[in-house]
């Protein structure tokens, strides 16, 4: 694997290999006081973030450090991007300075793909840490890792992705990855927050959350992305919460084994009740923990495994 840009088109064999490596790393490090492995000693990983992040940026930094890579964080707000430098020039500068891998988050869909084209010549790997409303592949991989831990195989598991699918790169990456791993995905949300062309995706669609919950193995609540809704938010926040929020009452409709996920950051009380987010069914903290091991596995497959340059 040379880059990780999307789960759309990602070979399920490769995805499973990354998940298996993450699992192995998690068990290797379990209970260890010192987490460092020597695997990426001498390699340089740079995170380049043009949008805010807590989970993705921090877990990539920890992942790189636990693999002994040198990790450097660049945020657009404190770099020469603020003086007008382009994404291309910024990326070429980082590669010239010695980056083996650039992890990029950018508001424009397709930015990570463009970066991988510009960095083909220096041979720098690129990881998409979220590009616009397009994809967030490592989030989908960590979601799959969490679901595998809780449910075992994903084959024929029914997973509901609920809410603002229209603006969600997390949803898009999960739709492709979960279906490639054999799960059935149902998108649940108001018609205004489902993407145009949804019929072409490997999913079924529902507008009735209460009708779907009794038959699912997992429910993935999405953040309502008000910052991407330039024309306003319809339905209103109150209407949305009543129809699509995962309340305590609604949680009772789920089967006992069903897992509750949320990629974060959560709007408690809007998309999900606090009591549900903190309940035993919730795997939200595990998602964050698994994010570190999955990102370690991604860096391993990009920079250290036999197929790294393929
Ligand atoms: N899930 C996710 O991408 O969170 P951050 O925006 O905090 O990285």
Automatic annotation (TrEMBL):
PROSITE patterns: CARBAMOYLTRANSFERASE. Transmembrane segments: none annotated. GO terms for biological process: 'de novo' pyrimidine nucleobase biosynthetic process; 'de novo' UMP biosynthetic process; amino acid metabolic process. One of its GO terms (molecular function) is aspartate carbamoyltransferase activity. InterPro entries: Asp/Orn_carbamoyltranf_P-bd, Asp/Orn_carbamoylTrfase, Asp/Orn_carbamoylTrfase_sf, Asp_carbamoyltransf, Asp_carbamoyltransf_Asp/Orn-bd. Residues 2-149 form the Aspartate/ornithine carbamoyltransferase carbamoyl-P binding domain. SUPFAM superfamilies: Aspartate/ornithine carbamoyltransferase. Gene3D superfamilies: Aspartate/ornithine carbamoyltransferase (3.40.50.1370). Heterododecamer (2C3:3R2) of six catalytic PyrB chains organized as two trimers (C3), and six regulatory PyrI chains organized as three dimers (R2). Belongs to the aspartate/ornithine carbamoyltransferase superfamily. ATCase family. NCBIfam families: asp_carb_tr, PRK00856.1. This is Aspartate carbamoyltransferase. The lineage of its organism: Bacteria, Bacillati, Actinomycetota, Actinomycetes, Pseudonocardiales.
